[in-house]
Amino acid sequence: MSLRLQFWGTRGSIPSPGAKTVRYGGNTPCLELRTESGRLIILDAGTGIRELGRSLIDRANGAPIRGDIFLTHAHWDHIQGFPFFAPIFQRGNHFLVWGSKTLERSIDTVLRDQFSPVVFPVSFEQLDATIDFSEIAAGEQRENDGYVVEAFGVRHPGGALGYRFHEPGAPERALVYISDNELGSGGAYGGPADWKEQLIGFARGARVLIHDTTYTTEEYDHHRGWGHSTYADGVELAIAAQAETLVLFHHEPRRTDEEIDRRVEECRALVHARGARVQVLAAAEGLTLTI
Ligand SMILES: [Zn+2]
Ligand SMILES: [Zn+2]
Fold first, then answer.
1. Separation of 213 CA from ligand 1 center, angstroms?
2. Could you tell me which of 132, 153, 251, 252 has the fewest CB atoms within 10 Å of its CB?
């Protein structure tokens, strides 16, 4: 039994194509997760979902495509690829979109608004696939066909969820996905006083912990309250939670491939200096991991 993960979009905030971002990729967040039983789970619908859609159609060979799409929140970089996800234009396909219960507007409304004629030429009603919506609340756990998912409310403007996935009967092989989250002290998120202990508990023992590492420590000083974390804070969380592998994620749009290489080395040095044993990787388009 194992979960298989592939990265299709790794960049935060806005797509950043170009020669200097080719290796780690310029598409905004999208991950493909497969259970042993073949169930498709998509995490976020940033611009990476466009290429994922093409790949799913190729692999399906005409068979219907079904899957669950879990959105962490509805900021542009996590939903902007959805209208370009080709499987939604094919009859017989079925997607269930999961979003947070605590958004100001429901995820259903936000996604439908992306198809308003002011901003997009095709209406939601013209989509050929069946698209259903479901809400999950922070602290809630669900068992669906072939996997268990748990949601956690993170520190991000407007609210966002982190997700923990594992297969039934194998809680020790967990993936924790926290795309946007401010571990630093900036911002007023109104959570409980022990939010950090709760977060460490949520991520505890994850085989793979994917976490927001948007900023350097210097950059963070100018972006307190913007809802993102530093490399050092990401490493400290992974150490505290005793995660096996930390995947640096939500790369800052200006971050070049060479700079990300250097940041990975710095994070590994920090892990070593702390006497810990967390493996550190940077999320890259095309990277696959078995959990
Ligand atoms: Zn984001
Ligand atoms: Zn965001």
1. 11
2. 132
List CB-based neighbours of ion ligand 1 within 5 Å. Answer: 12, 77, 180
Task: Give the model's pLDDT for residue 101.
Answer: 85
Distance from Cα 180 to the centre of ligand 1, integer Å:
5
User: What is the residue range of 10's domain?
Assistant: 4-290
Q: Which pLDDT does position 288 carry in this prediction?
A: 98
User: Amino acid identity, residue 146?
Assistant: G
Q: What is the pTM for the complete model shown? A: 0.98
**From edge to edge, which strands make up the β-sheet containing 147-154?**
141-144, 147-154, 160-167, 170-178, 208-212, 245-249, 279-282
Task: With beta carbons less than 8 A apart as the criterion, state whether 135 and 103 touch.
Answer: no
Q: What is the pLDDT of residue 196?
A: 96
CATH of the domain at 214: 3.60.15.10
The Å distance, Cα 249 to ligand 1 centre, comes to 10
